[in-house]
Please model this.
Amino acid sequence: MRLNGVLIKWNVDKGYGFVQLASSNQQMFAHISEFENRRRTPKVGDEVSFNLQKQSDGKFRAIDVAYVRETMDWFLLPIIVIAMGYIAAVGYASLETQLPVQISWTFALLSAITYLFYAVDKRAAQKSKQRTPENVLHWLSVLGGWPGALIAQQQFRHKTRKTSFRVVFYLTVTVNVAAVSYLALDGHEFWQWTERFDSF
Model:
């Protein structure tokens, strides 16, 4: 069960501080490595949520620390440009090649759905509830929802530290981009086959 608190002390040079529970005056040690968003510097007064971990000396420390009220950082802008740029590129390719125009709309819809799946999974992780299987997230990405996944990962700071997940995620991106490129540039036989199939 996640707890809420306020950062009451922070040593910028050493990268640690103390969080005070919202429900009491109890203070917990918190290290910068446990903050999900390390692109911004923690400051006194930040409202955070966190889990507790008991140390060998019997004391507790705050782990998996997340900011409760976090605005969109400017670093997210290039991520959005990349994600939306890919969907726009697919749309343009559908006008210039044999690629069906429906694909760009499908990718946009899948991206929105994938974004929501990540948001729900992030909330479930914070509340220690049932999680979305990673295979579901990967299938959504490989089918065309990876732009939404990319935005959600960075905005929610979710699924960004697990190496095995990141490797598979970028593999799904590669497979999707390669498949779309093939169908757009050299997919004549595939489209002829689908046309023959539709004629039955």
